[in-house]
Amino acid sequence: MPGPDLPAARGEVSELLFDTLQLSPRELDPISLPRSADPLADEDLQLALYCCYELHYRGFARVDEAWEWSPSLFELRGRLEEQFLAQLIDLVGQPESGSGEHWTEMDLALRAIGDSDDSPSLSHHLEREGTADQFREFLIHRSAYQLKEADPHSWALPRLSGRPKAALVEIQADEYGGGRPERIHAQLFADAMDAFGLDSRYGAYVERLPAATLATVNLMSFFGLHRRWRGAIIGHLALFEMTSSVPNRRYGDAARRLGPDDPRATAFFDEHVEADAVHESVAAVDLAGGLARDEPDVAGDILFGARALAALEGRWAAMLLEAWDHGSAALVSPAMTVGPPA
Amino acid sequence: MSEAGPTITPYRDGPLIVRGKFMLLDQDGNPIETGRDPIALCRCGKSRSRPFCDGTHQVVRFRAPSTREEGRS
Predict the structure, then answer these.
(1) Residue A2 belongs to some domain of the structure
(2) Rounded to two decimals, what is the model's pTM?
């Protein structure tokens, strides 16, 4: 199945990258990468990084699949990642090495991160006072992850063994529908998009997604694709699951209030209430705690991944609520881009 | 998923996770559809989908150990 089209570039880096990706794999022209003041909000940086990562998922139409392993592309991606990681560390601090939590306390340490998160609540807003347009915009933003839900965390599977591996498989089997294609969570999300009259094709809205949204997905791909960050991708998943059931109940109620009278509009959210109530415990105790027991050295990375999730989700939610507060949308308008790739 | 069991595990401050081969019946003996394996049964009493857990234990800050409780005040 061909991937989506490359999006329009948003600056020098994405323009060079997208222009070159349409040729056969080769050396990228040298490009000096300016030090971004705010990499997480840098449209050019986040879009370029997103598309580098996307080569490992579904690729792009008319982009040679051999680009996935191009050393020249990795060199550029590495420099983008360096800036991304530096800002993550600025935001949440260095992963603590050596002094990590004892594995039996990992669930409590993760919960403390969730409890101390004072980010504004998007689910509260949508449940109580959000509009149908805002709910549709929420689906558009979330489509960047939810249409490949669970995939970035699956990269961790070959890097685990024993109890944490079994726990991850237990969670992912459920995410992937337990053997029933129509129950794959990404499919349930596509169904919800269809019910709300949105385009549910993979990648259809990438061009409209701002840096803060792309950064939430780049975070998972960065942690997931680097074995060195296996602890962080597990911490990311654990906190994601631990903070999911209650918001999804609210999103489900919002979808019932704002959406069409169509079971597809709410099935994704309703499914996640009970599914994530199971995953929450398994992810915190068996997966994150199990990994910390097997590899005490990555305990600090587990918490780092969880803190990074909370920080980036918080920035994303704040961006949406601020835009909505001003009666606008937090989507990229076509005028912001530098034109379609040649 | 597993053919052994069932096993029932109380998770700290959370639900009872039930794995393995089991039947969930109401008091008249009628099966209660579970829809997944494993399942999480509500332990805090506040779920809106009892007998299943819906994560509400977090909202009400439910506290209980994973092992047997030896009485409490």
Answers:
(1) no
(2) 0.95
**CATH code where residue A206 lies:** 1.20.910.10
Say if A337 falls within a structural domain.
Answer: no
B37 compared with A172, residue with greater pLDDT: A172
B38 in reach of chain A (CB within 8 A): yes
User: Residue A11's pLDDT is what?
Assistant: 95
Whether residue B35 has pLDDT greater than 50: yes
Q: Supply the mean pLDDT for chain A.
A: 94
Q: Which residue has the tokens 């009628």?
A: B30
Residues A244, B55: C-beta atoms closer than 8 Å: yes
**In the predicted model, what is the mean pLDDT of residues A48-60?**
98
Can you give the residue range of the structural domain that contains A78? Answer: 12-91
In chain A, % of residues over pLDDT 90: 91
A&B contacts, CB < 8 Å: 62
Specify the amino acid at residue A186. Answer: A
- Domain boundary among the residues A35, A64, A91 is at A91
CA distance A216 to A314: 10
How would you classify residue A39: left for phi > 0, otherwise alpha for psi between -120 and 50, otherwise beta? Answer: alpha
Q: Report the residue from B11, B12, B55 with minimal CB separation from A276.
A: B55
Of B17, B36, B59, the CB nearest to A174: B36
Architecture of domain B1-66 in this structure: 3-Layer(aba) Sandwich (3.40)
- Smallest Cβ–Cβ distance between A278 and the set B13, B39, B56 belongs to B39
Cβ A14 vs Cβ A51: under 8 Å:
yes
The percent of residues above 70 in pLDDT, for chain A, comes to: 96
Neighbours of A70 (CB within 10 A): 20
Question: How many domains are there within chain A?
Answer: 2
